Amino acid sequence: MRVVSPILLAVLCASVPCNIARAESGSLFSQGNWGGARGGLIATPALSRDSKETPSLFVGRGAAGLFAERPAHEPAFDTASPVLVQGSDVARLRALIGAAESRRDGYEAVQHGARVKTPKPPTQMTLAEIYRWIEETPGQPHAIGRYQFIPATLRRVVAKLGIAPNTRFSPAVQDRLADVLMAEAGLHEFRAGGLGRVAFMNNLAKIWAGLPNATGKSHYHGYAGNRASITWARFDAEMARIDPVVIAGHGVE
After folding, report:
1. Considering the domain boundaries, does residue 240 fall inside one?
2. How far is residue 194's CA from residue 191's CA, in Å, rounded to a whole number?
3. What digits encode the pLDDT tens for the residues 96-136?
4. Radius of gyration for the chain, computed over Cα atoms and rounded to the nearest angstrom
5. How many structural domains are present in the chain?
6. How does pLDDT run across 202-238, given as a tens digit for each residue?
7. In a domain, 77, yes or no
8. Domain containing residue 192: CATH number
9. Structure letter (DSSP) for residue 91
10. Which residues form the signal peptide (predicted)?
């Protein structure tokens, strides 16, 4: 076996960064990802718990990795009133979004990519308990509930409504939070005829990755494995049933 002399080693480390004494990496099979041993097959740089970056399964892709959270959306109507909205159109929208986002588990849904699930069903948890779960399980997606709230959106909308941390994440609370997002997408403007159906649909698609935009794909298609789970034709047909312009002109029920 050839022995590398200390002098040669020093020369090599001067030209190529070395850290023989200590090298950490986040691996495809490392503890903290899938629970295997350290030193797996695909190594990625280790991130501190306070890092704002999201670990990727593929080196160099950063937040676009398979288990990354999608980016937080920017409200189209940031000044939208957070007051409770009601009506048959709201009920239809909730059902449509639920079908696109959490068809199987509804209000108890936790993003399938989350390796560490919630300690109990989401509707039995308080908001504070959900926040704790998020903080204690970094490096995995945390979309939760019927409307698949991601952490940044959940915290923002809860703060906007002034909901206390000890409030249970009940179906009624989830509906109320989703109603705020629908208002931010332009529900009031859509109802008043000041925002067209396609524009409103595109705004909704920027919030919920399971909904397609006018291209027929999710606004987040390919990002962290997201894709639309319903077709544009179905989305448009459902929205036509609540479009005030269509209803006024064609008598749609």
Report:
1. yes
2. 8
3. 999 999 989 999 999 888 899 999 999 999 999 999 999 99
4. 23
5. 1
6. 999 999 999 999 999 998 877 666 778 899 999 999 9
7. no
8. 1.10.530
9. H
10. 1-23
Is 245 a domain residue?
yes
Which residue(s) pair with 126 in the sheet?
A: 168
The owner of tokens 């890092």 is 51
Model confidence at 142: pLDDT above 60: yes
Retrieve residue 101's tokens: 């986002």
- Give the three-state DSSP class for 17: coil
CA dist 177 and 122 (Å) reads 15
> pLDDT digits over 164-199, tens only?
999 999 999 999 999 999 999 999 999 999 999 999
User: Does 1 fall in a domain?
Assistant: no
Q: What do you get for the CA distance between the two ends of the chain, in Å? A: 83
The pLDDT of residue 240 is above 90: yes
Task: Supply the range of the domain harboring residue 109.
Answer: 88-250
